[in-house]
Fold:
Amino acid sequence: MRATGLLDTGSEQVFEDLAGLAARVTGSGRAFITLVDESRSFWKACVGVDAVAVADRQNPVEESFCYFLVGLEGEPFIVDDAASDPRTREHPSVGPMNIGAWAGYPLLGSGGEVLGSFCVIDDSPRAWTSADLTTLETLARSVGAEISLRQSLTAAQKAHSLSADLAHSLQQGLLPPTPPAVPGVEVAASYTPASRPGRSDIEVGGDFYDLFRTRGTSWGAVLGDVCGKGVQAAQVSSMARYTIRAIASENWAPADVLAHLNAAMLAQDEPRFLTAVYARFRLTPAGIAGTLALAGHPPAFVRRADGTVRELGTPGQLLNVFDPIRLVDTRFRLNPGDLLLLFTDGATEARARPGRPGRDVFDDADLARTLAATAGMSAADTVDHITNALAVRHAGWASDDTALLALRVPDHHRR
Structure:
């Protein structure tokens, strides 16, 4: 009964209308829709009684006939003459409440439990007609259906909220809340989920990134994209992220790290493939020295301090498809003012919503030009600039998840 959410709530027109209809059709002076708990009969609707405040719309359960219905397991309780009926003549409310005749049908919950009653009261004794009782029974079922519908809606909303919370927690588990601080390096990252037009559910994406210390003064940066969406894609993302962390602690070259991840995925017989870029780097007196490998992933971009942009990385094969896999390490250096950008393909596939006029796809060349325009910007401002440019192109509708991870050597670098 508490799960209905109706206890101690105010008047609602739908219930007042049904009670009013019962009073008019039966010709009785009073009609009630009640919920009965262990101590009281709460009047969700009452007609013929001057009670507006919630505190006034109830009476102790022992002063109500409604509790009779709780013990009748779904049967109605009909009294033509309350003062002479042996079931009610000693009841304490017959005189004070001026009950001449009383007729009530139970309000049933989804499991058949009695929640309360739909009843009418006449000041004088009377014989309730079959039409009266049929009407009352029908209206009681209508009230029960309304209550069940509300419970179902509440349960669905709670389930959706729980699902949304779970999806959010799962997605957040794939991404560091904030990138860790790397001494001597500016770090910025962002994640933008794909739009789900026409859908209210929340679907976890397969994009992920991570930044972590490997061994000694070396750091690792990885960014990947699992084929598909949903929990299974998220599971693969999570497995990939933590597998790379474990393998990278051995200080292996990026191509070897990704090759070991490929072997781990193949061993699990997971059908989803994965693209990834992994870079290992360390600080030097001149800036950053590193090595990067691509596994079916778009090349990274390096933006020099003067705004020049070039691609970085040798194309490699997808993960969880080929055995053995072909991957190539590429060395790179970043000097003061230089920036390394890792990104998923959502950053090079932004487009307007299907069916709406818009510009062409925001492709690799667009991303390179946008990045070039950020010369002199910090890593955080660069990521914001790119995110805003993508939002302008897709006009609020992102066709795919987009992850960005930027590393920049400050202008006045000192190791």
